[in-house]
Amino acid sequence: MITSLNHIGIAVRDLDASKALYQKIFNVDKFHTEVVEEQKVSIASFKVGDVLLELTAPTSPDSPIAKFLDKRGEGIHHIAFASDSVSNELSRLSDEGISLVNNEPRHGAHDMLIAFLHPKSTGGVLMELCEPIVTNEK
Ligand code: CO
Question: How far is the CA of 33 from the centre of ligand 1 (A)?
Fold first, then answer.
């Protein structure tokens, strides 16, 4: 089940410049920063109400974000929805004929399992599903 809007991913070229801009607009106290090796991105995020805004910059020229920036420039990259089970949603959506970018959940930022749906199946909107990874150890 898809339960809520979790975050909005924004593609940026320069994370520091963009943090300064968003700091000005939203008066952000503190950004959460993280490098997600698997996606070749570094992110800076902050919350507006219940929703995270996630500024995402490439760490390598072959990062999917680098390709997006080359094609489309900076701007909204994806919208992410929380799910109670990303893998159940992927099989449900695939049965519905929705094309998936990721057939299996991957490891994303904020200790979450994530998977992208293909924008050709979602009216041009890149959608991500995400689910917190729950561990007993910590
Ligand atoms: Co995301």
Answer: 13
